Automatic annotation (TrEMBL):
Keywords associated with the record: Glycosidase, Hydrolase, Signal
Secretion signal, residue range per the UniProt entry: 1-44
Domain Atrophied bacterial Ig: 292-361, 374-464
A Pfam family per the record: Laminin_G_3
InterPro entries membership: aBig_2, ConA-like_dom_sf, GH43_arabinanases, Glyco_hydro_beta-prop_sf, TAT_signal
Protein's name in the database: Atrophied bacterial Ig domain-containing protein
Length: 994
């Protein structure tokens, strides 16, 4: 039964803590703002009292019912920060981060009569619910999905795109039971009141008091009202996998009766009130968008973003001083004094917003203060040539140009691809491994508006890291839309198809920052091979973000770490947050990867993104994904804004790159649902080549010149073999000695993520095969192009990375511990008094450091060169050992050689003479040692023992009594204190006396 009508009078509001810009609204709006106790609208008709009224007042986790009925809703995931003051209204800003649970009793279901009034503003088209009566979250067309009535304020469904979608659903046997109201259009500008009235078998939907849709149905409200304590939700869908709401909601009312058309009009907030709330929120959102890198409006030194629209409201800008701030937001850096400017935005609502701005006069010190260089660097240095604050021109000089280059005054940008932002400066030549670090002083010389200033920076250039041959592979990946953490795996040895999880199968990195989700990790080995970088997408679908909002309001950051062992990862920026690399007009930053550019001597980081007309993201045209890139040398500072890399008018994502010979080869996913021009199939991989990594791509072409752009060399590479759509391609060069490699040693593994069917599948190919692919002889159409049987890869990997590793890193990953020192072997040999130690590492890698030779009381320490060291052993030392002492990095363990015995330093000569017609032999023994030796001389004509002092020569004569003798040997045997011995022979030549 319908209760007696009562005059609607707004209950005094229990105000939540004001935030935002409410205090300044009156100064910028020409519209009147009602008081906190004023009626919502003049009553043209008496309106029944609502069963609940949520004006977005809140306390703790309760969304307060101000009708006096005490039917407070329960907030989940929403906090004080989710609410904003907008004129006289509070607004709940749903950002896909929470929802409100409605209590039972708002609508009873005793008949089919009810009314829901919902005042909302949103520019996000998504499959989500603004409100729903009903409970039971589940998959479409299942019994787990509860019966319900819902309204989506801006839908992404086909036939309802950017329009209001409302429906009633009561499942029956064999029938999903959903009846949708006909599409009646979208929201009005700013806040719009959508009122749904159920009366008997008819649903009527009003937009700001005007009917936009009706539906006649046979469903019963009693089949929808849940039996539990939750009637339904604000901002939470019942369809499993759909996203939470992204919208601003200012007012919601429920009645257990059907309002008349006049009552609908009388109840809803007045147009002026909605305009005031829209404008108040608009000011804060405009301010947030316009600031850019500036800390506040009274400290502006870089360009402002003056959007053409924000929140669907068109803006027209004017400036009180266009020479200082233009109407497009360009901020002059030519002023000499701080200058005030007033910016005015005229809105399509008929209101104006004014912003008082102070533009700071540029100072050289600000640009110099903004320069940060690592204290110790293993990479080329980002020696900026343009100030990041005021745009000063900067050149660099170096105290040691052989180690770090200065800015090249003669630098000229290439005809194709990106210019070097550092103009030849900052190129580092690291000392060889074992030579130690080198200190260099770099001086920045800044010039701006005729002024100059300089600043010096002391930098340590690290010696090169230890090299060892690759002996296996590592992988990083995430698992699913419900498990967005980074996992790792490693091979059991030097066989690519022997992966198993590491870290006990547990996640290696779990995000607690930004979106709190990590996807698409990519690992790149540094150009010198002694460090790894990992980049990942900042995205969390399991947190309630739908795929629509993920592309329209996604993160502008990439998550970045570095490691030397693939076990311990550190943020490159030293903070628990990602690094913003994308621009405000971008919709997302997906699947970042990186590759070393030989020409630029920098890393190119590339990613997929949508690009809107401006930061308001309100346009709906040209929103296909395209590829962008930025440059970095240290994965801390990146060039900005991103440069367009691939824009062909068709959606592309997930590029990966390898270099073979003079060409870069790029594998990319065609993200279109079908063919994209000459790309034959959607959701599949194609291949291109170019000599310039950063060359732009504006079309797919088999005949494009790879010297100036990217030439298509293959398309539809995987789906015909796998039977599945694919993405996240990876291309990995096989290690020497891998049994999967070929006899020439140029083998590659190509991988594709069959995201709907279990993850990665692999193809084995070669450099020659990749490089020879062309339209008439495509790699993917050759007989040898065949997908391997499943197995040998990480279990259920999604869009990840694969990289070669040394044995020590492989061992550390499997044991999930620090890198252990590699065992060494020291071998000692002697030649005369020279001893030589050769040191080898168990993994056949570099060995540097020192060797200490020891014998008796003598020791000598010698630096290794090319793995060996030599010393001359002093006289008197009879036995020597060599000890490899290791190196300061502790990467190779010490070892000791076996002892080598050394003899007396004796030498002998033999001569003959004739005495009375008979031969006499003379044997002379020289002792080069510094100790006396007892020497036995024995030959064909007798033996003698003599004592030879150190440094002396002693001769012994032997009478042969023969006029002629044949050639023969004489044995020299000596010994001395300390165990020194000697044994040798000397030859007596044949002789005859005449």
């Amino acid at each position: 039964m319908r209760p007696q009508p009562t005059t609607s009078t707004r209950v005094p509001r229990r105000r939540s803590l004001r935030r935002g810009v409410a205090a300044s609204v009156a100064a910028v709006l020409a519209v009147s703002v009602m008081g906190v106790t004023a009626p919502l609208a003049a009553n043209a008709a008496d309106v029944p009292a609502p069963s609940a009224h949520y004006d977005m007042s809140h306390s703790g986790t309760s969304l307060l019912d101000v009708s006096g009925n005490g039917r407070h809703a329960t907030l989940s995931g929403l906090t004080d920060a989710s609410f904003a003051a907008a004129g006289s209204d509070d607004v709940l800003r749903f950002r896909a981060d929470g929802y409100a649970s409605l209590p039972k009793g708002l609508v009873t279901g005793t008949d089919n009569d009810f009314t829901v009034e919902y005042t909302v503003s949103t520019q996000t088209a998504a499959n989500t619910f603004g409100w729903v009566i009903g409970d039971g979250v589940g998959a479409w067309n299942t019994t787990q999905l509860g019966n319900h009535i819902f309204l989506s304020p801006r839908s992404a469904q086909g036939g309802y795109t950017n329009q209001v979608l409302a429906a009633i659903r009561v499942k029956t046997d064999g029938n999903n039971g959903e009846n949708r109201m006909p599409a009646g259009g979208g929201l009005n500008a700013g806040f719009t009141t959508l009122t749904m009235v159920g009366s008997g078998s008819t649903l009527t939907l009003y937009r700001d008091g005007v009917v936009i849709s009706t539906l006649t149905h046979t469903r019963s409200l009693s089949s929808i009202i849940p039996s539990g304590n939750v009637l339904g939700y604000l901002g939470r869908p019942l369809y499993q996998g759909d996203s939470l709401l992204r919208a601003d909601v200012s007012d919601v009312k429920f009645w257990d009766v059907a309002l008349t058309a006049d009552e609908v009009t009388s109840s809803m907030p007045a147009a002026a009130d909605k305009t005031a709330a829209t404008a108040a929120l608009l000011r804060g959102d405009v301010l947030a968008n316009m600031l850019g890198s500036n800390p506040s409006l009274d400290q502006v030194s870089s360009n402002l973003t003056l959007g053409a629209s924000v929140n669907g409201v068109a803006l027209t800008w004017s400036s009180s001083n266009p020479a200082v701030i233009s109407t497009t937001g360009v901020v002059s850096r030519s002023i000499v004094d701080d200058t005030p400017v007033t910016l005015t935005a005229t809105t399509s609502l008929g209101t104006t917003l004014t912003f008082d701005v102070t533009v700071l006069a540029p100072t050289l010190s600000a640009d110099l203060d903004a320069i940060t260089l690592a204290d110790r660097s293993t990479e080329h240095l980002p020696l900026a040539t343009k100030g990041t604050v005021n745009g000063a021109d900067i050149t660099w000089t170096s105290s040691n140009p052989a180690v770090v280059t200065a800015t090249d005054a003669a630098y000229q940008a290439p005809a194709v691809g990106a210019a070097d932002p550092f103009r030849g400066g900052g190129l580092v030549t690291r000392p060889a491994y074992g030579e130690g670090d080198v200190e260099v002083t770099l001086t920045a010389h800044a010039t701006l508006n005729g002024q100059t200033e300089e600043r010096s920076f002391d930098v340590t250039i690290a010696e090169q890291g230890r090299w060892a041959p690759d002996a296996g592979y590592a992988s990083a990946y995430f698992k699913s839309d419900g498990d967005e953490k980074i996992y790792q795996a490693a091979t059991s040895g030097n066989d690519f198809f022997t992966f198993s999880p590491v870290n006990g199968g547990n996640p290696v990195i779990t995000s607690t920052a930004d979106t709190k989700g990590l996807r698409d990790p990519y690992i790149l080995r540094s150009k010198d091979g002694d460090k790894y970088y990992m980049v990942a997408t900042d995205l969390c679908i399991s947190c309630g973000t739908g795929w629509g909002p993920a592309q329209s309001e996604g993160s502008l950051k990439i998550e970045v770490w570095e490691s030397t062992d693939l076990v311990h990862w550190d943020r490159t920026n030293g903070e628990n947050t990602g690094i913003t690399v994308n621009q405000p007009a971008a919709g997302m930053t997906w699947a970042p990867e990186a590759y070393w550019d030989d020409e630029l001597q920098s890393y190119v980081v590339f990613f997929a993104s949508r690009l809107y007309s401006d930061a308001s993201h309100t346009n709906s045209d040209k929103l296909y994904a395209r590829m962008f890139y930025v440059l970095t040398r240290d994965f801390q500072t990146f060039t900005y804004p991103p440069a367009t890399w691939q824009d062909t008018g068709y959606a592309r994502i997930d590029s990966t790159v390898t270099k073979i010979g003079d060409y870069y080869y790029r594998f990319t996913k065609n993200e279109e649902g079908g063919a994209a021009g000459i790309l034959e199939a959607g959701k599949d991989i194609f291949m291109e080549r170019s000599k310039a990594l950063t060359a732009p791509t504006t079309q797919s072409s088999w005949t494009a010149d790879p010297n100036t752009t990217w030439q298509l060399t293959d398309t539809r590479m995987t789906s015909l073999e796998t039977g599945q759509a694919g993405e996240g391609p990876e291309i990995v060069k096989l290690n020497a000695g891998d049994p999967n490699n070929n006899a020439v040693g140029d083998g590659y593994v190509f991988l594709v993520d069959n995201y709907g069917a279990g993850g990665y599948r692999a193809f084995v190919t070669s450099e020659r095969a990749i490089a020879s692919s062309q339209q008439s002889d495509r790699l993917s159409q050759r007989a040898e192009w065949a997908v391997r049987p499943a197995g040998g890869l990480p279990a259920s990997p999604r869009h990840g990375a694969f990289v070669s590793v040394t044995q020590s890193v492989l061992d550390a990953m499997h044991e999930w511990t620090e890198v252990a020192a590699v065992a060494s072997t020291t071998t000692l040999t002697a030649e005369d008094r020279t001893v030589t130690a050769a040191v080898t590492a168990e993994d056949d890698g570099d060995v540097v450091g020192t060797v200490t030779f020891s014998g008796g009381s003598w020791t000598q320490t010698v630096d290794l060169e090319d793995g060996s060291a030599s010393a001359i052993v002093p006289a008197g030392v009879g036995s020597v050992t060599a000890h490899y002492d290791g190196y300061s990095d502790g990467l190779v363990s010490p070892s000791t050689s076996s002892a080598v015995s050394l003899g007396l330093q004796l030498s002998a000569t033999a001569s003959t003479r004739c005495v009375a017609g008979k031969i006499t032999e003379i044997v002379s023994v020289t002792n080069a040692d510094d100790v006396a030796a007892t020497v036995a001389i024995a030959g064909a004509y007798g033996s003698k023992t003599v004592t030879v002092a150190g440094g002396k020569t002693v001769s012994a004569s032997f009478t042969t009594r023969a006029a002629s003798i044949a050639s023969h040997d004489v044995t020299i045997t000596g010994e001395a204190a300390g165990g020194l011995t000697h044994s040798s022979t000397v030859t007596v030549a044949a002789a005859t006396c005449q």
